[in-house]
Amino acid sequence: MTGSGVEAFQGAARKVAEALAADAVVRDEANRAPFAEVSALRDAGLLDALVPSGLGGQGRSWSDVLSAVRPIIRADASIGHVLTYHYLNSWRIRLNSRPGVIDELERASAANRWFWGGAGNPRDAALDLVPDGDGFRVTGRKFFATGAQVADRITASGTRVDTGEKLAIVIDGRAEGVTHHDDWDNLGQRLSASGSVSFDAVRVPDAQVLGTSGQAGAAFQPYPSLSILFFQLVLAHLHVGIAEGALATASEYVRTKVRPWATSGVELATEDPYLLEITGELVSQTAAADALTWRVTRQAEGAVARGWDLTEAERGELAVDIATAKVASTRAVNEVTSKVFELTGARATTRATGFDRFWRNARTITLHDPVVYKAREVGAYTLSGATPTPSNYS
Amino acid sequence: MTGSGVEAFQGAARKVAEALAADAVVRDEANRAPFAEVSALRDAGLLDALVPSGLGGQGRSWSDVLSAVRPIIRADASIGHVLTYHYLNSWRIRLNSRPGVIDELERASAANRWFWGGAGNPRDAALDLVPDGDGFRVTGRKFFATGAQVADRITASGTRVDTGEKLAIVIDGRAEGVTHHDDWDNLGQRLSASGSVSFDAVRVPDAQVLGTSGQAGAAFQPYPSLSILFFQLVLAHLHVGIAEGALATASEYVRTKVRPWATSGVELATEDPYLLEITGELVSQTAAADALTWRVTRQAEGAVARGWDLTEAERGELAVDIATAKVASTRAVNEVTSKVFELTGARATTRATGFDRFWRNARTITLHDPVVYKAREVGAYTLSGATPTPSNYS
Amino acid sequence: MTGSGVEAFQGAARKVAEALAADAVVRDEANRAPFAEVSALRDAGLLDALVPSGLGGQGRSWSDVLSAVRPIIRADASIGHVLTYHYLNSWRIRLNSRPGVIDELERASAANRWFWGGAGNPRDAALDLVPDGDGFRVTGRKFFATGAQVADRITASGTRVDTGEKLAIVIDGRAEGVTHHDDWDNLGQRLSASGSVSFDAVRVPDAQVLGTSGQAGAAFQPYPSLSILFFQLVLAHLHVGIAEGALATASEYVRTKVRPWATSGVELATEDPYLLEITGELVSQTAAADALTWRVTRQAEGAVARGWDLTEAERGELAVDIATAKVASTRAVNEVTSKVFELTGARATTRATGFDRFWRNARTITLHDPVVYKAREVGAYTLSGATPTPSNYS
Amino acid sequence: MTGSGVEAFQGAARKVAEALAADAVVRDEANRAPFAEVSALRDAGLLDALVPSGLGGQGRSWSDVLSAVRPIIRADASIGHVLTYHYLNSWRIRLNSRPGVIDELERASAANRWFWGGAGNPRDAALDLVPDGDGFRVTGRKFFATGAQVADRITASGTRVDTGEKLAIVIDGRAEGVTHHDDWDNLGQRLSASGSVSFDAVRVPDAQVLGTSGQAGAAFQPYPSLSILFFQLVLAHLHVGIAEGALATASEYVRTKVRPWATSGVELATEDPYLLEITGELVSQTAAADALTWRVTRQAEGAVARGWDLTEAERGELAVDIATAKVASTRAVNEVTSKVFELTGARATTRATGFDRFWRNARTITLHDPVVYKAREVGAYTLSGATPTPSNYS
Questions:
Q1: Does the beta-carbon distance from D255 to C384 stay under 8 Å?
Q2: Which of C330, C383, C384, C387 is most worth mutating to test chain D (most D CB atoms within 10 A of its CB)?
Q3: Same domain, B322 and B341
Q4: Is the pLDDT of residue C4 over 90?
């Protein structure tokens, strides 16, 4: 990266996006864990963007980071996925109760340019924590552990087997006892390293114990539980970015490859009244989801700024607002990524074009948790003022 | 209005909104031209909001004005319609070439608390302008002349019968020769005074001649033609406000009147899984259209700030962005205002509830110009970078 | 009616439809109970179509009757509503256990050309039946009593105050103690006489007692409960007919009144690519709902033919099939009747056209019972083979 | 096949469907030309179903054949595609002017259990026919030649280089000069053998010349051009069958694999209110498209029965009716095959399930020709009574 301003950062991200676009179809097909891609992100100087400058990082805002990352999502949503999850996992350690430990981890993260993954799928059994010296040994298995396979550090939580207390922890991704199963061969988000990871008595020293998890459950507090909401927020950005990527790719194809339909009465496909209409409808729907996503992003940043003063009501209303973005962006991306084929036509169904990856990515990522339950939460707030019960998904 | 800050202004508008809400259904049914409502707007001190403070007005921004007006749109979209059109018609005289004339008109508008209407439907024949002394005599008829019937001043344009030049003019709404036909009995926007107006050799002195119209056609210039785009922008605000009004009204009804369906298994209608879902979907779709509408509003304000330096390309891109808001808000408001009946149920179809006014307003206002041609413009820009040919609708 | 074949019957119905179409808008506005219209139906010889020829009627099939009635639904869905409900209410007495009583009532119905209504809204309290001589006295009030106000005979049920037994009964619509409240002033289906009716110790002689009601509840039997399913089936026909009426009316308007949009590049509105597309989409959606409605109509006729041998499983599967038609036709009619305005344009929103009556009728009739619970029943059968619990709505 | 009745035929087809279902995912992935599958169809006795019994075939109706084939489409839409196209290509030779030649070909087809493909993509250049002895030599290349690669006989047409006359012909799929490029590696319908085929001076003896092609163009006649309409009709059956297959597969998965969502409040996924609703909506939409498809199938059979007496108007109205089925089924299958993932949830995105094949098949087959132009044709007929200009797509 040349320079330290936001333009330099955006420029660096854009270059990565261009490189990723060049072979996205081939890499998607190959389905290899994204070690090379993560190296490229590291080399581009993107990894420490959110680490405070006082701790050696770039000290950027979530808005700036998400704005810079958007072209990467458009070009390769899998890598957009691991990268935004890296930001989430490295950042959310901050929403815990041990500032000294957190600062040291952030400092080390910047210094070593660590890449972060997570192992927190709530639908799996909790990880076990057995006290061991100044820390713990962690054991268990988590599926959908996005980024863990290619991560230096893994953000997780576990339950103390002696006290039942739930602790937020950080695990060394290369430590002894960590097994990455390389078992992610899914429809979409294929390069997101979202397979399963096992921990067999892996050492977690005190310097990696973040304190009681306040994200959800008995020890719930509004501020730590922002991590849940930021995952939902990032999903909305991923949805919109995928829709934008599909539209850009399909538009380029229409411009350069599509012949006008015989009875269209026009010389160029770009003049076909129906291709114009369909494109305009899909672009407008995507723009609306995008505008809403950015609006709630700013609200989310406001909530972070409140810190430990954040109230349950404030947190609850933010949850509802983010849910509206989740709903709108889910509808948009599934519609757009399927309907773009009506722009490109039959010849574009050859696998060489790889156009289906947008729909495959959309269809996979939008199933993170059922969107209809997000609609339900928005409806409950509207009809009776109720905010969602804090949980691992809301 | 107590005080001069934006809160005072918003408070004044909110009070008007509350009063309008109280008898909106009855007034809608009665279908009388909104003389009383315009008086209330005047008495509330809302009319000179956009007039520069140097000319005796409040000097507010479009954003502040549109934000304050939103509750009025929700409560009574007809009055929201005439009020926003008042702002448009009083403001757009500024986008002309005779600053002295314009300043005097703005000063008089503030001093006299004039209400403004328009008579510009492009699908009717142009008004004729016959030179007469220092000014003209104007003759002709215009349909869809929103607000003209209740206006002190009417913004219009006419064609000089001697030279063919198209001039922007202002007409005294009470002048001799002006006939308001009181012929607006339409499905929706019933109190928007959108009937026809005739001019029979009505005197237009030089002090009401704004100069060559640069809005569209041969003398087109980007800055004056912003008026066209602001009409489109205001339509998007009207769409979103109507959707919000329908949702608020239906939600209140569900909360207070609806019994849960027999097989729903819940005690309260507000707990019915499907009512929650439908509400959440509609609220999310509306929120997305709203966020996009506000985003383009800020862009539009930026374009105004460019003044006569505004380029064709800048104006063209703004047109496309506003078109996305038009498309998204049109889809949202038509969907929302019809579907809310699935929240309120069969008993709510009694005419006493007046719930259908939201759909009637939506269905009427969204036909201002065909939304599919807006989608087409967005598509053209996306597929080939073309901006819309400036016209009376784009 | 000239002749007795199905063509004669269809011809007679078509003539009524044409007469109704001529002043449908005016009558809808006037909102008077349809006494004159019912007379016209009687004079046209339509009322005894379903009565067996052996009992003095025309002995027609449901298919022939519903096919003949369709043009009436298209022209005036309110009258289509009371007429199809007349057929339902006069026919469903047959699904009871006292053949002698039933035959006599059918014979009298044909001889006197009775018009039938119903008073069975299940969401109101049950009617009380007090034993009185050879019969009962009936007391209570029912809302949504479609057709009752203009009926000679009203099909109903009541609960014996002494034994709690639920009996199917017939009430003389003009008997002493019957009060028609003339309180139906709703959004749509305005001429369907769907207001409330009160019974104050109205005499129900033994000759009007049909026996224990087997329609739902404890004494449920598959055959009598077909009446519930036929109401649902008839609703599907009403939905499709309203959509067809809207399309026919809008198409005629496009053909004769609509000017092409300025930038459409075509000479006639009927050549506008978007009007062609929208029309084609709406017609196709309507045709699909129509084809499904007719398919389930044939299935329903098959179930009737099984008589008291009809099994619970057969009845349950028919309920599910009819539910698919309810869902598809509800979606179609609400979409079509709102979207047709995009064909006709802004000028067509003048109330003189009355185009909104199609949407108002659709929006009202489709709320008979919540369509989402029908979708749920279809889903339950698909996912687990469960048929709906027999009730007053399924 | 045991027995000759329709049940035996349907039973034989159902057995093939079951066998195809067992390894459909694996075969789809492997993307091999379906030689083995075609052998299975032949061995099951399915190939001569439409050949008149007087010529050695089974003499079945289109309805019986399409009904029997439906389970095959559900199980493996690629094979459903080649099989229905086999029927189309072997049957449409009958719509030509040389009865003697046709009879002999049909007789040979039944006797040798020939499988038929086509090479008629109208968007490619026409094949050249050079007179040679009693017949011709054919040269050229066709893309999207569904089934040709695995066919004994290929139905095609070519243009005489000497006279410009367009002739319908039959080509031996194994003849010298025929090259199958095995270049079909597309998103969906992967086993439909829809790659390209080249002909290099391939011999077409007089016994394979069907006469002047009356399908479209200058020599158009209504009866021969039914072949075009039957392709469209078969596409509608393929669409509906794919939707049905997706729903059956997803339902089975919900029943057996899906855990209820944490906040659903139910014990089984099959009781989740939203899964029930979504399933019911999709099933209803599919049922409507199916009912319409069968209705137009019966109309199409009626048109065939008219033979050479078929008028242009009759043919035109059938074209419009089939277009409604195309539109409705296209909307249904694209919606259903994408949305079923909301039933099955995130875990079902693993590629092992192969659930995406339904969407991939739908997305590919529905692009055969642009559905919006079909909507346009329906709209044109509705708005102005115009039937489509006969062409290779309508």
A1: yes
A2: C383
A3: yes
A4: no
Residue C389 within any structural domain of the chain: no
**By three-state DSSP, how is residue D369 classified?**
coil
Scored b (16 or more CB within 10 A) or e, A64-92 reads: bbbbbbbbbbbbbbbbbbbbbbbbbbbbb
In this complex, do C351 and B186 lie within 8 Å of one another by their Cβ atoms? yes
Tell me whether strands A209-212 and A166-172 are parallel, antiparallel or unpaired.
antiparallel
Q: Name the token pair of D91.
A: 């049957």
What is the interface size between C and D, counted as CB pairs within 8 Å?
A: 151
Q: Are residues D203 and D246 in the same domain?
A: no
Q: What is the mean pLDDT of residues C12-34?
A: 97
Tens of pLDDT, residue by residue over A42-88, are 999 999 999 999 999 999 999 999 999 999 999 999 999 999 999 99
> Rounded to 5 degrees, what angle do the CA atoms C383, C389, C394 make?
95
Q: Which two tokens stand for residue C15?
A: 């003539």
Per the structure, the complete domain to which residue A124 belongs is given by 116-214
> Hey, of B277, B278, B382, which one would you mutate to test binding to chain A, going by the most A CBs within 10 A of its CB?
B382
A289 and A205 housed in the same domain: no
Which residues in chain B have their CB less than 8 angstroms from residue D281's CB? none
Predicted confidence (pLDDT) per residue in C363-382, tens digit: 999 999 999 999 999 999 99
Report if residue D393 sits inside a domain. Answer: no
Query: C191 to each of A261, C20, C46, C82, how far by Cα in Å?
Result: 49, 12, 18, 8
Residues of chain A in contact with residue D341, where contact means CB-CB under 8 angstroms, are: 363, 367
B357 and B272 in a common domain:
yes
Evaluate whether C107 touches C138 at the Cβ level (below 8 Å): no
This prediction has a pTM of: 0.97
What's the confidence (pLDDT) of residue B115? 98
Same domain, C282 and C139: no
pLDDT one-digit tens code per residue, A1-47: 667 789 999 999 999 999 999 999 999 999 999 999 999 999 999 99
Mean pLDDT within A252-266: 95
What is the pLDDT, as a whole number, of residue B188? 96
pLDDT number for residue C250: 98
Residues A366-385 have a mean pLDDT of 98
Task: List residues in chain B touching A: CB distance below 8 A.
Answer: 247, 251, 254-255, 270, 273, 275-281, 283-285, 287-292, 294-295, 321, 323-325, 327-328, 331-332, 372, 374-380, 382-384
Chain B nearest-CA distance from A339, in A, is: 14
Tell me, what's the pLDDT at C48? 98
Q: Do the chains contact at D351 and A262, CB–CB below 8 Å?
A: no
How close, in Å, is residue D261 to chain B by CA atoms? 14
Point out the domain boundary residue: C214, C236, C257. Answer: C214
Q: 3-class SS at C157?
A: strand
* Residue B393 placed within a domain: no
Which residues from chain B sit within 8 angstroms of residue D273, using beta carbons? 273-274
Is A167 within a domain?
yes
Low-confidence ranges of chain B (pLDDT < 70): 1-2
The pLDDT value recorded for residue C111 is 98
**List of chains touching B (3+ CB pairs within 8 A):** A, C, D
Chains touching A (at least 3 CB pairs under 8 A) are B, C, D
Total number of domains in chain D: 3
Could you tell me if B250 and B340 are in contact, meaning their C-beta atoms sit under 8 angstroms apart?
yes
Residue of D nearest to B263 (CA): D273
Chain C residue whose CA is closest to B341? C363
What is the CATH number for A233?
1.20.140.10
Judge if B30 and B104 occupy the same domain. Answer: yes
Do residues B241 and B374 share a domain? yes
Interface of A with D (CB under 8 A): 122-123, 144, 185-188, 259, 261-264, 274, 278, 334, 338, 341-342, 345-346, 349-352, 355-356, 359-360, 363-364, 367-373, 389, 391, 393
**CATH assignment of the domain containing B61:** 1.10.540.10
Among B244, B256, B249, which residue's Cα sits nearest to residue B284?
A: B244
Q: Do C183 and C235 lie in a common domain? A: no
> What is the average pLDDT across C307-325?
98
Could you report the per-residue pLDDT of D63-105, keeping only the tens digit for each? 999 999 999 999 999 999 999 999 999 999 999 999 999 999 9
Domain closes at, from C164, C182, C214: C214
Number of residues that this document lists for chain B: 394
Q: Tell me, what CATH number does D147's domain have? A: 2.40.110.10
- Measure the CA–CA gap between D355 and D394, rounded to whole angstroms: 32
